[in-house]
Amino acid sequence: MTLFDRPFRTLLSREILRFTRVWMQTIVPSLLTSLLYVIVFGLALGSRIREVNGVPYLEFILPGIAMMTLITGAYMNSSWSVFDAKRERYIDEVLISPMSDFQITLAYTLGGTLRGIIVGAGVLVLGAPFAGVEVAHPLLLLFAGLCVSFTFAALGVLVGVLATRIEHISFLMNVILQPLTFLGGVFYSVEMLPEALRVGTLFNPIFHMVDATRYATLQVSDLVPYPTFAAVFFLALAAFGAAWWVVSRSKRLRY
Amino acid sequence: MINGERNGVPALQVKNLTKTYANGVVALNDVSLEIPAGRFFGLLGPNGAGKTTLINSIVGLARPDSGEVKVFGRDAHRDYRYARRMIGVSAQEVNLDKFLTVEEVLLYHAGYFGVPRDKARERAEELLDRFALQEKRRQRVNTLSGGMKRRVLFAQALMHDPEILFLDEPTAGVDIELRYRLWGYIRELNRGGLTILLTTHYLEEAEELCEEVAIISGGEIAARGANGELKERYGARTLEEVYLKVVGNDLVR
Questions:
Q1: Where are its TM segments located (chain A) (predicted)?
Q2: What is the ipTM of this complex?
Q3: What is the pTM for the complete model shown?
């Protein structure tokens, strides 16, 4: 029995169908919101800010905005999917199928990862004409995008399993992820911060993700790039490990 | 067919199963049960007696504290892929994937259980016909009526061609006509060799369908035997009388 057997592929395709079928609700709003950021911060305010780290402001913030959209898309997809399936108990069908808990976790995580990648890439593609961005290291960008999307999709699975109310999902999004994203250097360089905040930012995992993406896109970064990529990769593994643990142990799924 | 192939290995063996909830309630207290292959078996008992917990412990939705479950002689925990493929479950509460159409529910279910695509399509056609769901096949399941959903649930449990079927209150909230149709169909499946474990509140349903019943009360098997045998043992005319005597209700005494 291999990892990518028919049961696994079926659950993954169900996860993809879930967000592609309602793309007007899952893909379009994320792209519109990001375009608003590009317009407001980039075109309107950006004309007052010349350059950050030697890069025009709009160009500087675009990779960060793409990453922010990707994080939200990945997290929302898997958290909602698992939460809904659990609340209405149709996840039982998956739990009593011959799939292993590892396969179940991976299928839900990859579904969210793909949605994150689609909206993240969409933002870059739509924003590029405004910012005039050319991607410096496309493969590194793909690697960073996949790792980050995977991380937040896995986190979404974890939250989807543990949440007992819808508010828990939005709480994590609004009270933890959004602030960390905004404080993660999407709109500014960490160099612009006072010393204490600069050190604090180093403990924000999203800062490392944004920085890796910015390096891959613009070849500009606050940190030394390659250790950052390694950190981003290990975060993805850790998040998946946690999600897997919760899927196989939580009494909210198998009591 | 199954009896012959499996040389008398029981379809299901449950040994000393115990399950305690976090709040201290003992849902299953040292339950042992053996169901021969091909048997139509009824599991009766009041609400909260442990029927669903027993089923869930067998299929892996509940984690028993101790005990052993074997499906056709193989450990249901260690050999879970095998065990889960053998069992089809029609749950008590309708739990259909609301994002999917009727046809998709069946095909995705088959996929989750590893049924090849062509075979799944064939099987879906057969079950859509059988449960008169052809007209609704492209409709999302959350737009269906209660009875229709129940039919889809039933068809879904059968999609991967299981050898044991768990029916947890299959006719709750179902109209008379559908109930009779379901009865006819399950009987036919059982004659074809399918082992069936039915839980029900309707004692006439158990009387009508089951060859053998177990009455579970307070997490323990309080009585077990063939219908006729139980009636004789308890000096009762109907299964209902047996039931009331066993679960300690003295109304009929």
A1: 21-40, 60-83, 104-127, 139-164, 171-190, 226-247
A2: 0.91
A3: 0.93
